[in-house]
Design brief:
Layout: E1 3-14, E2 29-39, E3 44-54, H1 60-74, H2 82-92, H3 100-121, H4 125-128, E4 135-144, H5 150-163, E5 167-171, H6 178-192, E6 197-201, H7 208-217, E7 225-227, H8 235-244, E8 249-251, H9 259-266, E9 272-276, H10 277-280, H11 283-295, E10 300-303, H12 306-313, E11 319-324, E12 338-339, E13 342-344, H13 357-362
Helix pairs in contact: 1-3, 5-6, 6-7, 7-8
């Protein structure tokens, strides 16, 4: 089998999709780049990546150009030999990465290769990667964001529980006093009760002292994890916070490629390894980080694209929970089923996904 051609498209899609009716509409748009990779045997693989910014990122055209260039380099190669193809791309683009646009573009190509391989062998990507389980816990993300006031937190949280979510993520980091930060967690915990897992994302907005001080004060609300409490590359600072708190620390979504995860893990900076499929460079690299985490007895959680991450999280024994962030749900004809607080691994070959042609036309740039 040989790769013959690839269609690359830039999309400008709505930034978010409300998980519950009481959630305020955020508005705004995000830029995505999709690919359809064709083979000489008629098998098509799909992949996507994103320009990480609100609105139509000025970098989206550059990202699309990078994806197109990489796809051209794959033409004539065997898509079944994924490691060989991806290593070849790294060699041909040496000095341009890792990190940034190159790694984001690599992710889309790698994704399409795995989709093709699964379809050719009539197996899901989850099965190709090991096939550990068919259902993975998932948590609601994007509904309890920083702009929500206390009254909205108290309303949206129970609505998510009513919908079937047993885990949900909120945010801190924007209040002007520690007391106000703490009140957000108190309000949400009182609203949803003690049986619901609450995660909290700081998005790198605290320094080390703030993280220790406020983190200590919210421990009574039994948070499932605190996420990205300080700058993503302050490995020693994170380690200080991790040593000071009982609440587990999660981080990893902001780093590119696999090497920073070694720093996070060896410095004991985190308790939970969060891997972003797009920033890490695709499925091939994602599974390497998951193996690295397993060697250190650490659990893995995903970031964004739950439609694809379910295949990966279902394949590993140390997968903890899938982030149910609805940024990309509307781009597919059918998405993984949400059942009893979990996502089910699709039983179709490859990624088990097909782009919605209506969405591609509607959001095309």
């Amino acid at each position: 089998m040989k790769i013959t051609k690839t269609q690359v498209q830039v999309l400008h899609a709505p930034a978010d999709e409300a998980l519950v009716d009481v959630q305020p509409k955020s508005g705004g748009m995000r830029a995505f780049v999709t690919i359809k990779m064709q083979t000489d045997e008629g098998i098509e693989g799909i992949g996507l990546t994103f320009a990480p910014a609100m609105g139509l990122s000025p970098m989206a055209p550059a990202l699309a150009s990078a994806v197109e260039a990489l796809c051209e380099l794959t033409e004539g190669q065997d898509p079944m030999e994924i490691e060989a193809v991806m290593q070849g791309l790294k060699e041909k683009t040496t000095g341009s990465g890792p990190g940034g646009i190159l790694t984001l573009a690599m992710a889309a190509v790698d994704m399409a290769l795995w989709d093709i391989k699964g379809k050719a062998l009539n197996q899901s990507v989850c099965s190709l990667l090991g096939g550990y389980r068919k259902r993975v816990p998932t948590y609601a993300s994007g509904a309890l964001m920083r702009p929500m006031n206390l009254e909205q937190l108290a309303e949206i949280g129970p609505a998510l529980v009513q919908k079937g979510f047993k885990q949900m993520k909120s945010q801190m980091g924007a209040e002007d006093t520690p007391a106000k930060e703490v009140m957000r967690m108190r309000t949400l915990r009182e609203a949803v009760g003690d049986d619901i897992d609450i995660m909290c994302d700081i998005n790198q907005l605290w320094d080390v002292n703030q993280a220790i001080t406020i983190g200590s004060r919210v421990e009574e609300y039994n948070l499932f994890w605190l996420e990205d409490v300080v700058a993503h590359d302050d490995y020693q600072g994170m380690a200080r916070v991790a040593d000071s708190l009982n609440t587990p620390l999660a981080a990893g979504e902001y780093v590119y490629g696999i090497n920073p995860f070694r720093q996070l893990i060896e410095n004991r900076s985190i308790d939970i390894v969060m891997v972003d499929l797009l920033r890490v460079g695709g499925i091939t690299e994602w599974r390497k980080v998951a193996g690295m985490a397993e060697a250190f007895n650490l659990p893995v959680v995903s970031h964004l694209v739950p439609e694809i991450h379910i295949q990966l999280m279902g394949a590993i024994p140390n997968g903890l929970t899938v982030e149910y962030m609805p940024w990309t749900l509307r781009l597919f004809e059918e998405t993984p089923k949400f059942v009893d607080g979990c996502l089910e691994v699709p039983d179709k070959p490859g990624l088990g996904l097909k782009f919605s042609e209506d969405a591609l036309k509607q959001y095309a740039v």
